[in-house]
UniProtKB/TrEMBL annotation:
Top-level taxon of origin: Bacteria
Record protein name field: Xanthine dehydrogenase accessory factor
Domain XdhC Rossmann: 164-305
Organism: Paracandidimonas soli
Gene3D superfamilies: NAD(P)-binding Rossmann-like Domain
Length: 336
């Protein structure tokens, strides 16, 4: 399943193809307790249909009204809400927050197909727009690229900037892959048991038919990578963890009861792992919500991923490290 940002842009392209005028509004800056974060998007059709969100519902009505009355900026411009007391009263901003939007007319734009294709291929792309002319320039996202407003230029980063490597092709990993895709993760699922991979399919996820420890190394695990082992087979899960706990991954977890997790830590201590590295392991994995079914377990893991990711120091946006050609040649696939 693709991210919500992808679905917003895909819907905008469909509306353009059908002959509608479409605007894209992006949150660029917030103050106070604004309900949506910078980078949040909404696409608006000329008859008032909207997909996505730039607030908790406070200002969408105003955007819809502007769209139906052809009052949104063209080719591009800024909209601010909540900066004045009368805004809070008019738009119903009970949270007391304020936000600044960049709004652009997509009619006649040519960048959408290229960005959508990059997102389908799990590549991150930087888009820079001249705020005066609306002209757009695309380039591969670089580690120091950050979205924002830069001297008459609006910059957006499209595509996955986080990755999740799941060890094990089973029902739990299917449910987790679906959720993680919507959360903006590029999902990779590794399982050396090719019979398991034959029936495993989640749209937008990449499958790797290789040994788990090799996968952790080959994908170029970095600070934007999470690794979760869910096979219930110590031979496979432990292989992945031996590499993952030494890596720069921001999150490393393994499925299992508290008893099994304690035994796993004892096994890991027999190898060349420091106590601090073993301490990084999240097991039992996920938030404690009394989960039992594969779907419930996936929700618990995804919730903890969000909790940990949102507590990290803010990092510069970076493109996810691509899966190497050697992986594809060795049997990896990217089901569409």
């Amino acid at each position: 399943m693709y991210s919500l940002d992808y679905e917003i842009l895909r819907q905008a392209q469909e509306w353009l193809d059908a002959g509608h005028r479409v605007h894209l509004a992006t949150v660029i800056r917030t103050w106070g307790s604004a309900p949506r974060q910078p980078g949040s998007m909404a696409a608006l059709r000329d008859d008032g249909l909207l997909v996505g969100s730039v607030s908790g519902g406070c200002i969408e009505d105003d955007l819809i009204q502007r769209a139906t009355h052809a009052e949104l900026p063209a080719p591009a411009g800024w909209l601010s809400y909540g900066l004045r007391q009368e805004d809070i009263i008019q738009y119903g901003l009970p949270c007391g927050g304020s936000l600044k939007l960049f709004c652009e007319d997509l009619t006649g734009s040519s960048w959408l197909p290229e960005v959508l294709e990059a997102m389908r291929q799990h590549r991150s792309i930087t888009r820079e727009v001249d705020t005066g002319t609306g002209q757009c320039r695309l380039s591969p996202a670089q580690p120091d690229d950050q979205p924002g407003e830069y001297s008459h230029v609006f910059r957006a980063i499209h595509g996955p900037q986080w990755r999740l490597l799941i060890i094990g092709a089973n029902q739990t990993s299917k449910a987790l892959a679906d959720i993680a895709g919507m959360l903006g993760f590029h999902v990779l699922v590794c399982d050396p048991r090719k019979d398991f991979l034959q029936t495993w399919h989640v749209q937008g996820a990449t499958t790797l038919a290789m040994m788990p420890d090799d996968a952790v190394v080959e994908i170029g695990t970095d600070e934007r990578t999470a690794i979760v082992a869910v096979t219930h087979d110590p031979k496979l899960d432990d292989m992945a963890l031996l590499e993952a706990l030494k890596s720069r991954a921001f999150y490393v977890g393994a499925l299992g009861s508290k008893r099994n997790s304690d035994k796993r830590r004892e096994r890991l201590a027999l190898f060349e792992l420091s106590p601090d590295e073993i301490e990084r392991l999240r097991g039992p994995v996920g938030l404690s919500i009394s989960s039992r079914t594969p779907a419930e377990i996936a929700v618990a893991i995804a919730a903890e991923l969000i909790q940990v990711r949102n507590s990290l120091p803010q990092m510069a946006c970076s493109s996810a490290s691509p899966v190497s050609h050697s992986l594809l040649e060795s049997g990896a696939s990217s089901p569409q």
